[in-house]
Specification:
The two termini are about 25 Å apart. The chain has a 6-stranded parallel sheet with strand order 1-4-3-2-5-6, sandwiched between helices. The chain is built from 5 helices and 6 strands.
């Protein structure tokens, strides 16, 4: 499998950023399709990234990984509890062996749900990974909320 690169961007405050801009039909034809993966936990996100890589290969699409990192109100957003350099390194290891170009957005935020809704383009194809449980998990509730907001969501389960 050919190794490809990844680009990491750290966004200071996704909750205050403007919502992702709407894209006209003509612009969407010119720009490649983007499949967004929401980071939930390492194992589930790896499974979701593999699913996104398979989809991206068949659709000639890009993969984007959104990593929300919640920062307590007790700390300034510029000083998250886990240093962004460490998060970038860990995520870099996670995406390096996928074989598909991956754009990584580390999103420092106060509210994970609101930040994710702001970070996604309207009607985006999104992959959310979560563990298989009989009760509704945070990941399943997030996937349901993203669907209600108009996104196309694929939920991948891990044991």
């Amino acid at each position: 499998m050919e190794r490809t690169g990844h680009q990491v961007t750290t966004v200071k405050d996704c909750s205050l950023a403007p919502k992702a801009s709407r894209v006209s039909w003509s612009e969407s034809l010119e720009s490649p399709l983007e499949i967004t993966v929401v980071f939930t936990d390492k194992r589930s996100s790896l499974n979701a990234l593999r699913t996104a890589a398979l989809l991206a290969g068949g659709l000639n699409a890009r993969v984007r990984l959104v990593v929300p990192q919640v920062v307590s109100y007790a700390l300034p957003l510029s000083e998250p509890p886990i240093p962004t350099d460490f998060v970038e390194q860990q995520i870099g290891h996670l995406v390096s062996d996928l074989g598909v170009d991956t754009k990584v957005d580390i999103c420092l935020c106060r509210n994970k749900r609101e930040s994710l809704l702001r970070a996604l383009r309207p009607h985006s194809v999104t992959v959310v990974g979560g563990r298989r449980r009989w009760w509704p998990t945070w990941e399943r509730r997030l996937a349901r909320e993203l669907r209600r907001s108009g996104h196309e969501v694929i939920f991948t389960e891990t044991e």
